[in-house]
Write a structure and sequence with these properties.
Length: about 575
């Protein structure tokens, strides 16, 4: 076949991207759970008949890099037993290649003239996956995967267009919030079907031979771009170590991840040898989640315009020892891996890369530290389940830029939407008493970290089950600074009971909330980049005027003396402080 017009290849590549967005918009607009409809905790993708990822829309970034693992399992499982009208569901981390159980992967094979041509993917986090609690899939007491939720290896929920009632009944019989699970699962099926229609139209317009030739060029071109980016990193071995707070069961022991990055030409190897063994609690990473988290960190360091497809993955090699915290073996629980595990892995990658390309890396982001809650909502007369996505922390600073405020956990890489506060109060039995930037939460730097938040809510129902499933409550797990920048403070959690007592809900622990209790989340900001005494004085003053940093922080962290009455800069004292700092 003659070489394709590069403009046509670009048009087809953009159409694949658009189809992924259309699948996502369908999910967003037809779902029931606020995890889908408000936070967009999902990812969409298109694969070719060979199982290669052509395009994706990673609304939640950490879900995207694990889809190739799930797709391989699905294709291996069914082989040639695929037909028009089939829809396949899979959530199993071990038998299905998923990150963790709450993420339901829905895959639909796309046929043209009876021949398998593509796959459409709609994957998202469900509000209830059964197991010991049904609390958005999180069970901090679990010591095996069976306690975390219903395991679904690849199974057809539609076969040749026929609704498989027995399979649906089996799934719904094992969850508490059936109306949410059924609604969101149907929305995924519908979204994958929308993608199918668009792909059939695309093939009808250009022909399958042209489309497949274009796919080859898209993937090969992306690989060349990715290899060039890797080649720009100096050859060498770069090492780092990062920690989790604990695994929820052995609460007095931090969990360690060790990493050595090896760069040789246009190839990059991520070697996690030396990381801790898999844990009793549910924070261990599946290989799929480790690979996805590693790719997330790398993609946030190189050219952001590189497409995230199969070609981008080809230069990347992963070494993750089986039975370790970065490649756990059955039956290890692993539901919290996409939060605790991903944050720790990304930090390890960034710290290692900062030794080679500090101008491209970021300071640490705030780790997720927030509850997932479920119970009966008397206002709606129904069970509810939700993750409190309003308490997003700050992103880390980088060369030339402050960190983004209230951007969210790195697992989502900025893609997580903060729900509308009023809608949050309508669907959940809570009343927000505080939702604002947390003063002095950002790590000081020439480019400071992004701001964290104070998120307080009052409970308006009884017997609400809460699990704070994040970490970052320790100095060793707080956001780090880079290039002379300072780190941010750890997160803090408080539950104030109606009788006046104060309780620390900690992490990976169930707490029962009742009417009148107030849950306080003090979510930290991101780490700073560069010497904070080099931050322009006017920017420090602006942050004080905006009440983002205090007068004390301006003086002690930035060397800027501000009069507390007039809020003007004392130029003489400021110059004195900054000169003394230069001599140190």
């Amino acid at each position: 076949m003659k070489q394709l017009d590069p403009i046509l290849v670009s048009v087809i590549a953009n159409r694949f991207d658009a189809i992924c967005r259309e699948i996502g918009e369908t999910m967003y607009r037809t779902s029931r759970s606020p995890i889908f409809s408000e936070a967009r905790d999902f990812v969409t993708a298109v694969y070719d008949r060979k199982g290669r990822m052509i395009a994706q829309k990673p609304y939640i970034a950490v879900l995207a890099g694990a889809v190739p693992y799930a797709m391989r399992k699905i294709i291996e499982y069914f082989g040639d037993d695929l037909h028009p009208g089939d829809v396949i569901l899979n959530n199993d981390p071990y038998l299905g290649g998923n990150n963790h159980q709450p993420d339901f992967t829905v895959a639909k094979p796309v046929f043209r003239d009876g021949v398998l041509s593509f796959w459409t993917i709609a994957k998202g986090h469900h509000a209830d996956t059964g197991g010991g609690t049904g609390c958005c899939g999180y069970n901090p007491n679990a010591t095996s995967i069976w306690e975390e939720g219903l395991r679904i290896p690849p199974v057809k929920i539609y076969e040749k267009g026929e609704y498989k009632k027995s399979i649906w009944d089996l799934i719904l019989a094992n969850v508490r919030m059936q109306f949410l699970v059924e609604g969101d699962l149907r929305c995924q099926v519908g979204a994958a079907t929308v993608g199918e229609r668009k792909l059939v139209e695309l093939v009808g317009k250009y022909g399958i031979d042209t489309i497949e030739a274009a796919v080859d060029e898209i993937l090969d071109g992306t690989e060349r771009q990715m290899r060039q980016e890797i080649s720009d990193i100096p050859d060498g071995v770069y090492e780092s170590v990062r920690y989790y707070d604990h695994d929820g069961i052995n609460r007095d022991k931090k969990v360690t991840i060790k990493l050595a990055i090896r760069i040789k030409g246009s190839d990059i190897t991520f070697d996690y040898t030396g990381s801790d063994p898999q844990t009793m609690g549910g924070v261990s990473n599946t290989e799929a989640n480790t690979f996805s988290s590693t790719c997330l960190a790398l993609f946030n360091t190189v050219d952001p315009d590189i497409r995230k497809n199969d070609g981008a993955l080809r230069p990347i090699k992963l070494i993750a020892p089986p039975g370790s915290v970065v490649n756990c073996s059955e039956p290890a629980p692993c539901t919290s891996c996409t939060i605790c595990g991903t944050a720790t892995i990304v930090e390890a990658v960034w710290l290692a890369l900062s030794k080679a390309v500090p101008h491209l890396t970021q300071a640490g982001w705030a780790r997720w530290s927030s509850p997932a809650t479920m119970g009966f909502n008397p206002r709606t007369g129904r069970m509810f389940g939700d993750i409190h996505f309003l308490c997003k922390g700050g992103a880390g600073g980088t060369l030339g830029y402050d960190g983004w405020d209230h951007l969210g956990v790195i697992s989502c890489s900025g893609g997580l939407r903060a729900p509308d506060p009023e809608l949050h109060e309508l669907v959940d039995p809570y009343y927000l008493t505080s939702y604002e930037f947390l003063q002095d939460s950002a790590g000081p730097g020439k480019w400071r970290g992004g701001m964290g938040v104070k998120y307080f809510f009052r409970v308006e129902a009884d017997n609400i089950l809460s699990d704070n499933f994040g970490d970052g409550l320790l100095p060793d797990t707080a956001p780090f600074g880079l290039a002379g920048g300072k780190g941010a403070k750890p997160n803090k959690l408080v539950v104030r009971r109606t009788d006046g007592t104060v309780e620390d809900p900690e992490v990976h622990k169930f707490v029962t909330l009742n009417t009148g209790d107030v849950y306080e989340v003090w979510e930290t900001g991101g780490g700073g980049y560069g010497d904070p005494f080099e931050r322009p004085i006017e920017k420090v003053q602006d942050d004080v005027l905006d009440e983002l940093i205090s007068i004390d922080s301006a003086k002690n962290d930035y060397g800027v003396v501000i009069d507390p009455k007039t809020l003007t800069v004392n130029a003489k004292e400021t110059e004195k402080l900054r000169k003394a700092h230069q001599k140190q």
